[in-house]
């Protein structure tokens, strides 16, 4: 299955399609637009639309499946899906790195792309605050020395020996040139499964966490975190942390407070959305719009785009019965 | 650039988007739905729709770009595109194989997927009739002994030594087990460039060729060729040949005649489309519908799908001015 995400175990595949879930391996296998070949969808008038194509190539008319991917159920209800699954990799390695700055994180991304090439399947970054929270809450030891940033890189390939050689060379280059401060590498599944939770800083979320899911170009990727810390320095905030999928430019921002705090909230929103918009980012990388972001969708989409979207919605669901009040 | 196709040099990128061009490396990099991140499109009313997103993840409203990919210019005119380009592979190898039957071709696909895994970037098959035509017309020697089928496999990776080892092992396994009858392998660019034209059996097309571009599941992939030869055995036909992108299930069928021949045409159409439809294939894998296939689009798409497509067309282009008379 090309899709893997934090919500695995509770999410459903129809919901994944409707929210265009991205997750941990989009970097390797592409978005659902890349892997979904066909859908069955119940349209607002009850008609069943069968575009359950199993072919990789089919250029006969408009590509209707894509209209429902990411439409948040507002155009139809996804009931069946054909998804293209890659050959399961026979060799998987994970390395957990300690890094001194975000600039160095970006250097490591370059190094990983050139050394690991086609076997790189995940490229994640987490700041110390995020990893420290998970480490304490779930009692998982951070496997490298304390550093301002950590990275988790995964490789998936068809040849254990070649993959291991590529990863070792990458680590040697990084350690020798002092871009990597500390590193561990795992190839056993049991150890890999124990290390992944350190990436899931979002699993520490409490009710009183303000959390955001934005995407940005890599040069702007982490800048919002120090800005937000400065902005909130006089407030009663537990942590401001950032972690995300570097391969996709998707940053999760978590602002954790002791209890719901209107003063903090007022400093965070709409500032974070406006800042993201000014930096040509997306105010919702993978979580969608729903109810919570209806009032800021215009910060990521032009009026012309929104008009066309509303026309499509009006044409397909004139009675507004599909997932009402959402998105627009 | 993730897209490479026979029409390189004469096609244009806007046309590639509008026809959802597939080409030689769809197997590796996915379709244009996978690689196009954003578009600028002139809508039928003259409005410029700017969805020139450069982000890999952006779930803010409907994913409008996908509506124009493969719409054959009937919904708008593509004027700009943001496309995601992979890191250029530093190592490329091509192997040209001779094979005894189509069943063996399928065995080799499996062998290639397991041995070559993530570095396999093209997996092409051609029958002897097709390759013989190119070989004669362009005076290119077939580099292996005469066989009923040939395959051209390309690998692209980041490590010359690893890629070469994987490919050598694949060839050794195939030759030892007699699934490959004869093989050559090239890693020099100049030699690779000389061998690729043997795959382009379509480059021999004459005005009086009936040519088809269908997609099918792999078990049905080649069956239409012997059926068509039997059907046309008493006609004045030069060759019936089949070649295509095995990784994508896309078969090109060329029926070459000395001059336009209504008797041949009547035996070929609509039979080939009906046969493809009965085998759950697509009557147009990558060439689109245009004018020529309007009358058979219903063989690949349900009435519900066609109704929704027509509604979208009517809503966006009520005056039917965009690429008029095409598709519907």
Can you offer a commentary on this structure?
- 2 copies of one chain form a homodimer.
- With 328 residues, chain A is α+β, with helices and mostly antiparallel strands.
- Chain A has 12 helices and 10 strands.
- In chain A, the strands form 2 sheets. In chain A, strands 7-4-6-5-9-10-8 form a 7-stranded antiparallel β-sheet, sandwiched between helices. In chain A, strands 2-1-3 form a 3-stranded antiparallel β-sheet.
- In chain A, helix 5 runs antiparallel to helix 7.
- At the A-B interface, strand 2, helix 5, helix 7 and helix 12 of A face helix 3, strand 2, helix 5, helix 7 and helix 12 of B.
In short:
The structure is a homodimer of 328-residue chains. Chain A is of the alpha+beta class. Helices cover 32% and strands 22% of the residues of chain A.
Distance between the termini of chain A: 32 Å
Radius of gyration of chain A: 21 Å
Beta fraction of the residues of chain A?
Answer: 15-25%
* Main sheet strand line-up of chain A: 7-4-6-5-9-10-8
Largest interface: A-B, 83 and 84 residues
Low-confidence stretches of chain A: none
**Which CATH architecture of the largest domain in chain A?**
2-Layer Sandwich
**Shape by Cα distribution of chain A:** globular
Average pLDDT of chain A: 94
- CATH class group of the largest domain in chain A: Alpha Beta
DSSP strand tally of chain A: 10
Helix content of chain A: 25-40%
């Amino acid at each position: 299955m090309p899709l893997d995400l934090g919500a695995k175990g509770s999410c459903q595949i129809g919901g994944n399609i409707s929210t265009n879930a991205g997750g941990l391996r989009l970097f390797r296998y592409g978005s659902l637009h890349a892997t979904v070949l066909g859908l069955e969808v119940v349209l607002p008038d009850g008609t069943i639309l069968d575009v359950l194509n199993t072919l990789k190539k089919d250029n006969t008319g408009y590509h209707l499946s894509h209209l429902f991917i990411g439409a948040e159920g507002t155009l139809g209800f996804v009931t069946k899906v054909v998804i293209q699954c890659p050959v399961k990799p026979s060799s998987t390695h994970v390395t957990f790195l300690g890094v001194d700055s975000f600039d160095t994180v970006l250097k490591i991304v370059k190094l990983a792309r050139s050394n690991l090439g086609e076997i790189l399947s995940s490229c994640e970054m987490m700041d110390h605050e995020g990893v420290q929270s998970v480490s304490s809450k779930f009692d998982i030891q951070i496997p490298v020395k304390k550093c301002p940033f950590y990275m988790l890189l995964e490789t998936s390939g068809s040849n254990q020996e070649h993959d291991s050689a590529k990863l070792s060379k990458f680590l040697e280059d990084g350690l020798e040139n002092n871009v990597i401060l500390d590193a561990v590498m795992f190839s056993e599944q049991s150890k890999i499964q124990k290390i992944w939770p350190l990436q899931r800083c979002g699993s520490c979320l409490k009710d009183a966490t303000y959390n955001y899911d934005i995407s940005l170009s890599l040069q702007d990727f982490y800048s919002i975190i120090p800005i937000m810390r400065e902005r909130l320095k006089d407030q009663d905030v537990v942590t401001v942390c950032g972690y995300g999928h570097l391969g996709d430019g998707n940053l999760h921002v978590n602002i954790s407070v002791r209890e719901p705090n209107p003063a903090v909230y007022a400093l965070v929103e709409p500032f974070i959305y406006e800042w993201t918009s000014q930096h040509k980012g997306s105010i919702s990388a993978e979580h969608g719009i729903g109810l919570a972001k209806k009032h800021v969708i215009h910060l990521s989409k032009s009026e012309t785009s929104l008009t066309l979207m509303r026309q499509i919605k009006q044409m397909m669901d004139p009675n507004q019965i599909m997932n009402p009040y959402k998105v627009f």
